[in-house]
Amino acid sequence: MAATFSKGVVLPELVFVAFQATFAAITCALILGAVAERMKFSAVLLFMVIWFTFSYCPIAHMVWFWMGPDAYTDASVVDAMNAKAGLIWQWGALDFAGGTVVHINCAIAGLTGAFLVGKRSGFGKEPMPPHNLTMTMIGASMLWFGWFGFNAGSALEANSFAALAFINTFLATACAVLAWVVGEWIFRGKPSMLGAASGAVAGLVAITPAAGNVGIAGAFAIGTAAGFICLWGVNGLKKMLKADDSLDVFGVHGIGGITGALLTGVFNSPDLGGPGLVTDWVTATTGYPGIGAQFWIQLKAVLLTLVWSGVVAFIAYKITGAVVGLRPSEEDERKGLDIVEHGEQAYDM
Question: Could you tell me the CATH superfamily of domain 3-124+131-342?
Answer without folding.
Answer: Ammonium transporter AmtB like domains (1.10.3430.10)
